[in-house]
Amino acid sequence: MSKKEENKEIKEEKEEQSLTNLPGVGAATVEKLEQAGYTDFLSIAVASPAGLAEKIGMTASAARKVIQAARSSLDMGFETGDILLEKRQQVEKLKIPSENINQLLGGGFETGAIVEAFGPYGSSKTQIAHQLCVSCQLTGGTAVYIDTENTFRPERIVQMAKAAGIDPQEALKKIKVARAYNSDHQMLLAEKIEELIKEKDANVKIVIVDSLTAHFRAEFVGRGTLADRQQKLNRHMHILSKLASTYNICVFVTNQVMAKPDMFFGDPTEAIGGHIVAHNSTFRMYLRKGKKGTRVAKLVDSPNLPDSEAAFVITEDGIKDV
Predict the structure, then answer these.
(1) pLDDT digits (tens, 9 = 90+) for 126-174
(2) Taking Cα atoms as reference points, which of 79, 78, 58, 62 lies closest to residue 70?
(3) Residues 250-295: tens digit of each pLDDT
Protein backbone atom coordinates (compact mmCIF):
# COMPACT_ATOMS: atom_id res chain seq x y z
CA MET A 1 0.00 0.00 0.00
CA SER A 2 1.36 3.43 -1.00
CA LYS A 3 1.69 6.30 1.49
CA LYS A 4 -1.10 8.19 -0.30
CA GLU A 5 -3.51 5.22 -0.06
CA GLU A 6 -2.60 4.72 3.60
CA ASN A 7 -3.33 8.39 4.42
CA LYS A 8 -6.62 8.17 2.52
CA GLU A 9 -7.63 5.07 4.51
CA ILE A 10 -6.79 6.81 7.84
CA LYS A 11 -8.79 9.88 6.77
CA GLU A 12 -11.82 7.72 5.81
CA GLU A 13 -11.58 5.86 9.14
CA LYS A 14 -11.60 9.15 11.07
CA GLU A 15 -14.60 10.38 9.08
CA GLU A 16 -16.45 7.10 9.78
CA GLN A 17 -15.79 7.58 13.51
CA SER A 18 -16.98 11.18 13.64
CA LEU A 19 -19.38 11.68 16.56
CA THR A 20 -21.91 13.29 14.19
CA ASN A 21 -22.37 9.86 12.55
CA LEU A 22 -24.05 8.59 15.72
CA PRO A 23 -27.89 8.54 15.64
CA GLY A 24 -29.49 11.74 16.98
CA VAL A 25 -26.12 13.47 17.48
CA GLY A 26 -25.73 16.87 15.86
CA ALA A 27 -23.14 19.62 16.21
CA ALA A 28 -24.69 20.96 19.45
CA THR A 29 -24.75 17.48 21.03
CA VAL A 30 -21.15 16.84 19.94
CA GLU A 31 -20.13 20.00 21.81
CA LYS A 32 -21.94 18.78 24.95
CA LEU A 33 -20.33 15.33 24.61
CA GLU A 34 -16.83 16.78 24.31
CA GLN A 35 -17.37 19.13 27.26
CA ALA A 36 -18.43 16.11 29.35
CA GLY A 37 -15.30 14.18 28.34
CA TYR A 38 -16.84 11.94 25.64
CA THR A 39 -14.39 12.76 22.85
CA ASP A 40 -14.34 9.47 20.93
CA PHE A 41 -16.39 6.35 20.21
CA LEU A 42 -14.67 4.31 22.93
CA SER A 43 -15.51 6.74 25.75
CA ILE A 44 -19.18 6.63 24.65
CA ALA A 45 -19.20 2.85 24.15
CA VAL A 46 -18.12 2.19 27.75
CA ALA A 47 -20.51 4.77 29.27
CA SER A 48 -23.72 3.85 31.08
CA PRO A 49 -27.04 5.04 29.55
CA ALA A 50 -28.08 6.78 32.80
CA GLY A 51 -24.72 8.56 33.18
CA LEU A 52 -24.65 9.71 29.54
CA ALA A 53 -28.29 10.90 29.66
CA GLU A 54 -27.66 12.91 32.83
CA LYS A 55 -24.54 14.66 31.52
CA ILE A 56 -25.80 15.41 28.00
CA GLY A 57 -29.43 16.15 28.81
CA MET A 58 -31.05 13.48 26.61
CA THR A 59 -33.51 10.70 27.37
CA ALA A 60 -32.26 7.33 28.60
CA SER A 61 -33.57 5.57 25.46
CA ALA A 62 -31.75 8.05 23.18
CA ALA A 63 -28.54 7.60 25.21
CA ARG A 64 -28.91 3.82 24.89
CA LYS A 65 -29.14 4.11 21.07
CA VAL A 66 -26.05 6.34 20.94
CA ILE A 67 -24.05 3.90 23.10
CA GLN A 68 -25.19 0.90 21.04
CA ALA A 69 -24.19 2.63 17.79
CA ALA A 70 -20.74 3.47 19.22
CA ARG A 71 -20.26 -0.14 20.34
CA SER A 72 -21.27 -1.46 16.91
CA SER A 73 -18.66 0.76 15.24
CA LEU A 74 -15.82 -0.50 17.42
CA ASP A 75 -13.99 -3.78 17.77
CA MET A 76 -14.92 -4.48 21.39
CA GLY A 77 -13.49 -8.00 21.37
CA PHE A 78 -10.57 -9.68 23.12
CA GLU A 79 -6.86 -9.00 22.64
CA THR A 80 -4.02 -11.51 22.74
CA GLY A 81 -1.47 -11.46 25.52
CA ASP A 82 1.40 -10.37 23.27
CA ILE A 83 -0.52 -7.21 22.24
CA LEU A 84 -1.19 -6.41 25.90
CA LEU A 85 2.52 -6.95 26.65
CA GLU A 86 3.35 -4.40 23.93
CA LYS A 87 0.94 -1.92 25.53
CA ARG A 88 2.63 -2.51 28.89
CA GLN A 89 5.84 -1.09 27.38
CA GLN A 90 4.21 2.36 27.56
CA VAL A 91 3.94 2.12 31.36
CA GLU A 92 6.36 4.40 33.21
CA LYS A 93 7.75 4.10 36.74
CA LEU A 94 7.90 7.32 38.75
CA LYS A 95 10.85 7.08 41.12
CA ILE A 96 11.38 8.86 44.43
CA PRO A 97 14.73 9.27 46.29
CA SER A 98 14.03 6.14 48.39
CA GLU A 99 15.26 3.18 46.34
CA ASN A 100 13.76 0.83 48.97
CA ILE A 101 10.23 2.05 48.17
CA ASN A 102 10.94 2.04 44.42
CA GLN A 103 11.99 -1.62 44.61
CA LEU A 104 8.99 -2.44 46.80
CA LEU A 105 6.74 -1.23 43.94
CA GLY A 106 8.68 -3.03 41.22
CA GLY A 107 10.80 -0.06 40.13
CA GLY A 108 8.64 2.90 41.09
CA PHE A 109 5.08 4.24 41.16
CA GLU A 110 3.41 2.80 38.08
CA THR A 111 1.48 4.91 35.57
CA GLY A 112 -1.90 3.64 34.42
CA ALA A 113 -2.62 2.47 37.96
CA ILE A 114 -3.99 3.59 41.33
CA VAL A 115 -1.50 3.36 44.21
CA GLU A 116 -3.08 3.58 47.67
CA ALA A 117 -1.08 4.36 50.81
CA PHE A 118 -2.94 3.91 54.10
CA GLY A 119 -1.78 4.20 57.68
CA PRO A 120 -2.26 6.08 60.98
CA TYR A 121 -1.44 9.77 61.39
CA GLY A 122 2.27 10.55 61.20
CA SER A 123 3.06 7.54 59.01
CA SER A 124 4.27 9.77 56.12
CA LYS A 125 1.39 9.47 53.64
CA THR A 126 1.42 13.20 52.87
CA GLN A 127 5.23 13.29 52.78
CA ILE A 128 5.23 10.70 49.98
CA ALA A 129 2.54 12.73 48.17
CA HIS A 130 4.73 15.86 48.32
CA GLN A 131 7.78 13.88 47.19
CA LEU A 132 5.92 12.55 44.14
CA CYS A 133 4.94 16.12 43.17
CA VAL A 134 8.64 16.97 42.94
CA SER A 135 10.06 13.68 41.65
CA CYS A 136 7.68 13.49 38.67
CA GLN A 137 9.21 16.76 37.42
CA LEU A 138 12.61 15.12 36.94
CA THR A 139 11.11 13.40 33.87
CA GLY A 140 9.36 16.54 32.64
CA GLY A 141 5.99 15.80 34.23
CA THR A 142 3.55 17.89 36.24
CA ALA A 143 1.29 17.03 39.18
CA VAL A 144 -2.36 17.58 40.15
CA TYR A 145 -3.10 17.61 43.90
CA ILE A 146 -6.59 17.39 45.44
CA ASP A 147 -6.20 18.45 49.09
CA THR A 148 -9.09 17.42 51.36
CA GLU A 149 -7.47 18.02 54.76
CA ASN A 150 -5.48 21.24 54.20
CA THR A 151 -2.18 19.34 54.32
CA PHE A 152 -0.45 20.62 51.17
CA ARG A 153 2.54 22.77 52.10
CA PRO A 154 4.40 24.72 49.37
CA GLU A 155 7.28 25.23 51.85
CA ARG A 156 7.85 21.47 51.86
CA ILE A 157 7.93 21.43 48.05
CA VAL A 158 10.62 24.15 48.13
CA GLN A 159 12.81 22.02 50.44
CA MET A 160 12.42 18.88 48.30
CA ALA A 161 12.92 20.77 45.03
CA LYS A 162 16.21 22.28 46.24
CA ALA A 163 17.43 18.80 47.23
CA ALA A 164 16.47 17.44 43.79
CA GLY A 165 18.28 20.28 41.99
CA ILE A 166 15.05 21.85 40.67
CA ASP A 167 14.27 25.57 40.80
CA PRO A 168 11.71 25.82 43.66
CA GLN A 169 9.56 28.46 41.94
CA GLU A 170 9.39 26.40 38.74
CA ALA A 171 8.57 23.31 40.78
CA LEU A 172 5.62 25.06 42.45
CA LYS A 173 4.31 26.28 39.08
CA LYS A 174 4.14 22.69 37.84
CA ILE A 175 1.79 21.57 40.65
CA LYS A 176 -1.93 22.31 40.33
CA VAL A 177 -3.54 22.27 43.78
CA ALA A 178 -7.24 22.43 44.66
CA ARG A 179 -8.81 22.28 48.12
CA ALA A 180 -11.92 20.07 48.33
CA TYR A 181 -14.43 21.15 50.98
CA ASN A 182 -16.81 18.16 50.82
CA SER A 183 -17.21 14.84 49.01
CA ASP A 184 -19.26 16.33 46.15
CA HIS A 185 -16.63 19.02 45.61
CA GLN A 186 -13.93 16.33 45.69
CA MET A 187 -15.69 14.28 43.01
CA LEU A 188 -16.26 17.36 40.85
CA LEU A 189 -12.56 18.25 41.02
CA ALA A 190 -11.67 14.69 39.95
CA GLU A 191 -13.93 15.09 36.90
CA LYS A 192 -12.30 18.43 36.06
CA ILE A 193 -8.80 16.89 35.99
CA GLU A 194 -9.41 15.69 32.43
CA GLU A 195 -9.53 19.33 31.30
CA LEU A 196 -6.15 20.00 32.95
CA ILE A 197 -4.63 16.94 31.26
CA LYS A 198 -5.76 18.17 27.84
CA GLU A 199 -4.17 21.61 28.27
CA LYS A 200 -1.26 22.38 25.95
CA ASP A 201 2.10 21.18 27.35
CA ALA A 202 0.36 19.93 30.53
CA ASN A 203 2.12 16.52 30.58
CA VAL A 204 0.38 15.45 33.80
CA LYS A 205 2.21 12.43 35.22
CA ILE A 206 0.54 12.07 38.61
CA VAL A 207 -2.79 12.84 40.27
CA ILE A 208 -2.82 12.88 44.08
CA VAL A 209 -5.86 12.73 46.37
CA ASP A 210 -4.89 13.40 50.00
CA SER A 211 -6.91 12.04 51.65
CA LEU A 212 -9.36 9.93 49.69
CA THR A 213 -11.87 9.08 52.43
CA ALA A 214 -11.74 12.01 54.90
CA HIS A 215 -14.91 13.76 53.64
CA PHE A 216 -16.81 10.52 53.03
CA ARG A 217 -16.02 9.41 56.58
CA ALA A 218 -17.22 12.72 58.06
CA GLU A 219 -20.42 13.08 56.02
CA PHE A 220 -21.76 9.51 56.13
CA VAL A 221 -22.13 8.58 59.80
CA GLY A 222 -23.73 5.36 61.06
CA ARG A 223 -24.52 2.02 59.48
CA GLY A 224 -27.67 3.37 57.82
CA THR A 225 -25.60 5.55 55.45
CA LEU A 226 -22.95 2.92 54.68
CA ALA A 227 -24.49 1.73 51.38
CA ASP A 228 -24.83 5.31 50.05
CA ARG A 229 -21.26 6.12 51.08
CA GLN A 230 -19.79 3.05 49.43
CA GLN A 231 -21.75 3.62 46.23
CA LYS A 232 -20.52 7.22 46.03
CA LEU A 233 -16.96 6.23 46.88
CA ASN A 234 -17.08 3.53 44.20
CA ARG A 235 -18.13 6.12 41.61
CA HIS A 236 -15.25 8.38 42.67
CA MET A 237 -12.72 5.54 42.41
CA HIS A 238 -13.97 4.66 38.93
CA ILE A 239 -13.40 8.26 37.77
CA LEU A 240 -9.82 8.09 39.07
CA SER A 241 -9.28 4.67 37.52
CA LYS A 242 -10.49 5.92 34.15
CA LEU A 243 -8.06 8.86 34.32
CA ALA A 244 -5.17 6.49 35.12
CA SER A 245 -5.86 4.06 32.27
CA THR A 246 -6.99 6.55 29.61
CA TYR A 247 -4.08 8.98 29.99
CA ASN A 248 -1.39 6.61 31.33
CA ILE A 249 -0.86 8.58 34.54
CA CYS A 250 -0.26 7.46 38.12
CA VAL A 251 -3.03 8.13 40.63
CA PHE A 252 -1.74 8.20 44.21
CA VAL A 253 -4.35 8.25 46.98
CA THR A 254 -3.81 8.38 50.73
CA ASN A 255 -6.29 6.72 53.05
CA GLN A 256 -7.12 6.86 56.74
CA VAL A 257 -7.40 3.85 59.02
CA MET A 258 -9.66 2.71 61.83
CA ALA A 259 -9.04 0.41 64.78
CA LYS A 260 -10.72 -3.00 65.06
CA PRO A 261 -11.37 -3.50 68.81
CA ASP A 262 -12.42 -7.13 68.29
CA MET A 263 -8.97 -8.09 66.97
CA PHE A 264 -6.81 -9.59 69.72
CA PHE A 265 -3.74 -10.62 67.68
CA GLY A 266 -1.74 -8.71 65.08
CA ASP A 267 -2.17 -5.12 63.94
CA PRO A 268 -5.73 -3.91 64.69
CA THR A 269 -5.67 -1.10 62.09
CA GLU A 270 -7.73 -1.38 58.91
CA ALA A 271 -8.13 0.98 55.95
CA ILE A 272 -11.33 3.05 55.58
CA GLY A 273 -13.48 2.35 52.53
CA GLY A 274 -13.57 -1.43 52.82
CA HIS A 275 -13.60 -3.62 49.73
CA ILE A 276 -14.62 -0.77 47.41
CA VAL A 277 -11.29 1.04 47.82
CA ALA A 278 -9.30 -2.20 48.08
CA HIS A 279 -10.61 -3.65 44.81
CA ASN A 280 -10.20 -0.39 42.88
CA SER A 281 -6.58 0.14 43.99
CA THR A 282 -3.92 -1.56 41.86
CA PHE A 283 -1.21 -1.36 44.53
CA ARG A 284 -1.80 -0.98 48.28
CA MET A 285 0.86 0.09 50.79
CA TYR A 286 0.44 0.05 54.54
CA LEU A 287 2.60 2.70 56.24
CA ARG A 288 3.54 2.68 59.92
CA LYS A 289 6.13 4.14 62.28
CA GLY A 290 9.27 2.08 62.85
CA LYS A 291 12.07 2.24 65.43
CA LYS A 292 14.26 5.32 66.02
CA GLY A 293 12.25 7.67 63.81
CA THR A 294 12.08 5.37 60.79
CA ARG A 295 8.98 4.51 58.76
CA VAL A 296 8.01 1.16 57.27
CA ALA A 297 6.06 0.63 54.03
CA LYS A 298 4.50 -2.78 53.54
CA LEU A 299 3.12 -3.83 50.16
CA VAL A 300 -0.11 -5.67 50.99
CA ASP A 301 -1.67 -5.99 47.54
CA SER A 302 -0.33 -6.02 43.98
CA PRO A 303 -1.29 -7.82 40.75
CA ASN A 304 2.28 -8.99 40.07
CA LEU A 305 4.54 -8.34 43.09
CA PRO A 306 5.08 -10.33 46.32
CA ASP A 307 4.23 -8.88 49.73
CA SER A 308 7.32 -7.24 51.23
CA GLU A 309 8.50 -4.34 53.38
CA ALA A 310 10.77 -1.31 52.95
CA ALA A 311 12.23 1.01 55.58
CA PHE A 312 12.77 4.73 55.00
CA VAL A 313 13.24 8.01 56.85
CA ILE A 314 11.89 11.54 56.48
CA THR A 315 14.58 14.21 56.19
CA GLU A 316 14.50 17.90 55.37
CA ASP A 317 15.55 16.97 51.81
CA GLY A 318 12.72 14.47 51.44
CA ILE A 319 12.24 10.73 51.68
CA LYS A 320 15.48 8.75 51.95
CA ASP A 321 16.54 5.15 52.61
CA VAL A 322 17.54 4.20 56.13
Answers:
(1) 999 999 999 999 999 999 999 999 999 999 999 999 999 999 999 999 9
(2) 62
(3) 999 999 998 765 655 656 678 988 888 999 999 999 999 999 999 9
Indicate the residue among 22, 46, 73 that finishes a domain: 73
User: Do 317 and 159 meet the contact criterion of CB atoms below 8 Å apart?
Assistant: yes
Do 206 and 252 form a contact (C-beta atoms < 8 A)?
Answer: yes
Q: Are residues 317 and 210 in the same domain?
A: yes
d(CA 274, CA 9): 49
Distances in Å between the Cα of 123 and the Cα atoms of 290, 305, 310 are: 9, 23, 13
- Kindly state whether residue 82 falls inside one of the protein's structural domains: no
Beta bridge partners of 308: 299
Q: Where are the beta strands (DSSP E) in the chain?
A: 93-94, 109-110, 113-118, 142-147, 175-179, 204-210, 250-255, 257-259, 269-271, 283-289, 295-301, 308-315, 318-321
257: β partners: 271
pTM: 0.81
